[in-house]
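Much of our argument rests on the idea that a fold can be written as discrete symbols. Part of our work consisted of pairing the sequence of a single chain with a tokenised description of its backbone. No coordinates are needed to read the tokens, only the vocabulary itself. The record that follows shows the chain in one-letter code together with its fold in token form.
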Amino acid sequence: MKDTKQQWFKDAKFGLFIHWGLYAELAGEYNGQKTDRIAEWIMNTLDIPVEEYEKLASTFNPVDFDADFVVKRAKEWGMKYIVFTAKHHDGFAMYDSACSDYNIVKATPYGKDIVRQLKAACDKYGLKLGLYYSQAQDWHDPNGLKHLKENAGKDYQSYLDNKVKPQLKEILTQYGDICLIWFDTPMQTTLEQSQSLFDLVKSIQPNCIVSGRIGNGLGEYMTTGDNFIPRLPFEGDWELPATLNDTWGFNKDDHNWKDANQVIRLLLKISSRGGNYLLNIGPDAKGVVPQESIDILDKVGKYVTENNDAIAGTKRLAFYPYELEWAELTQKDYKLFVHVMQPRIRVELQNVANKVKRAYLLKDGRELHFDESITCEGPHMIEVDVPEDLHDEINYCVCIETKEKDPIFEPIKE
């Protein structure tokens, strides 16, 4: 069972992933050919030569990027931490790196350090900053690995020693506290090599969490597959990285946006199963966050902030014997939260052994009438009346305070 030993991570539940780099300049298309894969992989997918891809840096000038705006909105959306791509698989650093001039400060007309801007804004608004770093794949470095490409003859250890470790030292020493390093796609990295990276992080910042994708089982929390929602709760600390459409980096042709109600439900599913939802935005080449992303997250954020007590700091829910089409459940100490996702006139729960102390609407504190009974089939039934003005509404939360700590669910009787 994975354990970060970091209470902030256990309580966070909601974070912002930001995928941004040179690939935003292409926006999913190179020389008239559109990628049918995720946009930030376009260099690999379309076999763009290094010398051609490098040219993107000469025109990459995201003058409209506003770190203060992004972090302030993340705070308003109820997110507790941000993870930003300091270096993705294309090998381009989005900060001022001394060990490689292939970075946004030295190689672009923009010439400013994005990581430094985000860290300043995170400190201002009280959010934690984590950094994504692609440790194995680097399509720019001759000794970095490439997915589904020829990797024979590469001096991978030399790449780790001469680029990865120096850059990790940079991002862990130049920006103050970094809450986590989000490694990715370890590929053929050996246990010894993964351990050396883990030890390096801890030697510089002992409290910096190492993500599950460092490889070889060394991560301090489990990272699920991208956009894969578990059916059942997971033990220990875990996180689910997810997109708002079908890509991570900006793709001008990807309009398959999730509905805000769908995102709210996914957040609640993940929270109830004990995980954190790391939800991505991908700014365009000018640094502008797609309006569709903002519109979705504004709606999600309204629900999260109105019902913060039912999301942040909640614990893994003991297995509930029923799948509810109309609701998701979360819990914290003496509180069982019922997140209503479909119109209801009454909240009904079976097989909850706890005795009810009170019931109320979380967003405004209105006390609600409740009844407890034993049904003809035998299980304990809790019924809470929904106020008339909410009969046709969705996305609100009913809090049921119980006399016993943590919900106790009775098994279904035949």
